Amino acid sequence: MSAAPSSTSVLRRSLASSLLASLSTSSSSSSSSLVGAVGAVGAVGAVSAVGSPEEVFSLGHVIGSFSSASSSSVVPCVDPFSEKVIAHIANASTEDVNLAVQCAKAALPLWASTTKQMRQKALHAVADDIERQKDGLAAVETMDCGKPFEESVWDVEDVVTAFRYYADEAAQRDDIQRVDVGDEDYKCHIRKEPLGVVAAITPWNYPMLMAVWKVAPALAAGCTVVLKPSEHASLTCLLLGEIVRKHCPAGVLNVITGVGSISGAALASHPDVDKVSFTGSVPTGRAVAHAAAASAAGPKPANLELGGKSPSVVFADAITTMRIDDIAEWVLFGFAWTNGQICSATSRLLVQRPLYDALLDALRARIATIRACDPMETGCRIGPVVTRAQYEKVLAHVDRALADGAKIANPGGEHGTLGGNRRRPPSYPTSGFFVPPIMLTNVETTSAAWREEIFGPVVCVRAFDTEAEALALANDNVYGLASAVFTSDEGRADRFEKGIRAGIVWKQCSQPCFCQMPWGGYRSSGYGRDLGAQGLDNYLGQKSVVRYAAAHKPLDWYPAPQSKL
């Protein structure tokens, strides 16, 4: 059922609209003395109402110090809750991509030569600005991608933390690292320097945060960036571009929007792009890697953070140190957080047989407490998935699983199917792309539900008997992004940590992420790492410098020429 919006929801939507509308009155003025050095190319991004009963915004790219597009082609942005168009974003052409890359290339010499302390100051100013606008940015994020407002607030807080972390991490590093090669005739060092122009291609489930996982370390390293967010959720990335432009030179961060098959491919293959960093699906990741490798200027390095089908393994002894209700909450958080749209979701649940029935009962009880409502409301714990296409995709996965013999094990989950007359529990709002949390049992390990990424609040559950069986089942997948284990036996937890083929291991929890810790996976989950110190290294080139310090000693390898004297 749908109730009238509360004053809280109205206020937050008003905040979001005001923040988007503010782009129309912004200018290329900046608080940073560095900004004028690159020079203004035009006027800042415009936003205008396009004449409908409810305000709809039109937003251009953020390129250099102006906003425009080479054509009138646009992409609609749909609020997943109201199912109404809230904005139109420019659909980037190859000409737009080239202009953005050229602006980044033009800004590179100044930004790369700026002292680390000045870059640190600029990035802290960016963080301060984002922090001041936290609620408004969170409201835009929720309106654009459907995640609960309180989750969006967490995301924006993590954005602030990431900018501060990388500003300080880069500033305290030495550019030169001395190396003892064991020969006193040679003095050697490694010089680290900005890699160049970075193409960052990012997903819709954490629009601003996952963009900043790439943008913050790249800018801290002295690189310039062209950011291409998903066409399904670009609004906070455009706002990010405007905020960065206030504190950094024009062209340091450029944001282009639109359909990825056009602009993303052109960006990844552009000869003036020096590095590509991508987060998204496996098929798109393959295309990005191919484009980067096939660039006319030659292959370029690429980081890929792709999909996952992560396991959560619960041993029977876990309840000796944790309440079963607490375990159930972590398990639920692991597959339903962000409306289940998270690459690291622990969407395969393995439970040791003695605990199986009790844990499923605890999960059912937890799921029954979830409040599904307008995601702007305080207390919302599940919102709509990002688009109607994603909604249909998730429910089609569930229908296929049922056809393959799976069973829905929680009340309300049966509404999450395409086959029924009702696609949501009666307590859910009547608008919005809502998928209720769904527990699937009787799932074969060869089935698509067990093996493929669904990207919705769906978990597949199986029982196991032995530790060896649990590890074998956990590893029996093409992905290797993350994993979780619950056990009171520290030795067993350590054995799991060593035996699991995944880049992330959670013990007694699921999904915590810290910008100080690297993030990435094995196998089909991609290669390279975001976050942590390694996240900064992604954007630094290394020069090996060798000086012969014994010039008085000849090499004495080739015969000396005969003297003619």
UniProtKB/TrEMBL annotation:
It comes from the Eukaryota. GO terms for molecular function: aldehyde dehydrogenase (NAD+) activity. Keywords: NAD, Oxidoreductase. The active site is at residue 305. Residues 70-545 form the Aldehyde dehydrogenase domain. Pathway: Amine and polyamine biosynthesis; betaine biosynthesis via choline pathway; betaine from betaine aldehyde: step 1/1. It holds the Pfam family Aldedh. The keyword Cytoplasm does not apply. Gene3D superfamilies: Aldehyde Dehydrogenase, Chain A, domain 1, Aldehyde Dehydrogenase, Chain A, domain 2. Belongs to the aldehyde dehydrogenase family. This is Aldehyde dehydrogenase domain-containing protein. It comes from Pycnococcus provasolii. The lineage of its organism: Eukaryota, Viridiplantae, Chlorophyta, Pseudoscourfieldiophyceae, Pseudoscourfieldiales.
